């Protein structure tokens, strides 16, 4: 009698709330954010594998991995061959929610700027190379912007509902992805445009 494969256990979600200025400062670098995202998506990888994925050098990625490790965001794995040093993400994502009325949020703006820079770089690279992407993926790519008329509470609800739709598909925790699944980048920005408001 053939044994049925045991279903893979879901990876527990670990999304800490990062508000420490030193941690935010460490994340205020597009390559560091990209390397962390890569490890969260694929699991353990060496600095060389990270470098190929994010388009940087192994020595730079090794440095960035050490910086991330110093803040507990990644950790070194046991080497399987005694030569290479794999790293793994210790988190599956993160939030930046400061207590209400906390005023200054040191490091947050720089980290957000780095994240936006990374999004811009990735989008430009995709546009530059999209002719090499399989047609099935080109057919579903999207770039959409919306001008909303909402209250702060309504905008919070919209973002929460979008997050709820996306969460089951996160590479860091998904265990039921079909064989033809691939990695996709999806970003969301939502912010007020006070200059559009009528006086």
Structure, described:
With 199 residues, the protein is mainly α. The chain has a single domain (21-196), classed as Orthogonal Bundle (Arc Repressor Mutant, subunit A), CATH 1.10.10. Helices cover 41% and strands 3% of the residues. The chain is built from seven helices and two strands. The protein has helices at residues 21-26, 30-42, 47-54, 58-70, 108-129, 135-138, 152-166; strands at residues 74-76, 87-89. Strands 1-2 form a two-stranded antiparallel sheet. It is globular and about 65 Å long.
Question: Structural class of the secondary elements?
Answer: mainly alpha
| Largest pleated sheet | 2 strands, antiparallel
Distance between the termini: 76 Å
Q: Compute the number of helices.
A: 7
CATH overall fold name? Arc Repressor Mutant, subunit A
Summarize the structure.
With 199 residues, the chain is mostly helical. The chain is 41% helix and 3% strand. The longest helix is centred in the middle third of the chain and has 22 residues, at 108-129.
Topology:
Blueprint: H1 21-26, H2 30-42, H3 47-54, H4 58-70, E1 74-76, E2 87-89, H5 108-129, H6 135-138, H7 152-166
Antiparallel strand pairs: 1-2
Helix pairs in contact: 2-3, 2-4, 2-5, 3-4
Q: What characteristics describe this protein?
A:
single chain; 199 residues; mainly alpha; Arc Repressor Mutant, subunit A; two-stranded antiparallel ribbon; 7 helices; 2 strands
């Amino acid at each position: 009698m053939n044994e049925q494969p045991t279903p893979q256990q879901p990876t527990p979600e670990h999304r800490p709330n990062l508000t420490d200025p030193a941690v935010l400062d460490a994340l205020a670098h597009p390559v560091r954010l990209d390397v962390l995202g890569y490890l969260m998506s694929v699991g353990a990888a060496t600095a060389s594998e990270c470098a190929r994925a994010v388009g940087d050098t192994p020595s730079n990625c090794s440095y960035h991995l050490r910086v991330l490790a110093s803040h507990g965001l990644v950790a070194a794995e046991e080497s399987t061959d005694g030569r290479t040093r794999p790293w793994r993400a210790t988190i599956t994502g993160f939030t930046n929610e400061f207590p209400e009325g906390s005023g200054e949020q040191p490091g947050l703006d720089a980290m957000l700027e780095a994240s936006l820079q990374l999004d811009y770089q990735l989008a430009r690279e995709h546009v530059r190379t999209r002719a090499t992407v399989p047609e099935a993926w080109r057919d579903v790519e999207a770039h959409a912007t919306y001008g909303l008329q909402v209250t702060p509470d309504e905008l919070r609800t919209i973002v929460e509902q979008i997050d709820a739709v996306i969460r089951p598909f996160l590479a860091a925790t998904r265990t039921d992805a079909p064989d033809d699944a691939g990695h996709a980048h999806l970003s969301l920005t939502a912010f007020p445009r006070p200059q559009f408001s009528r006086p």
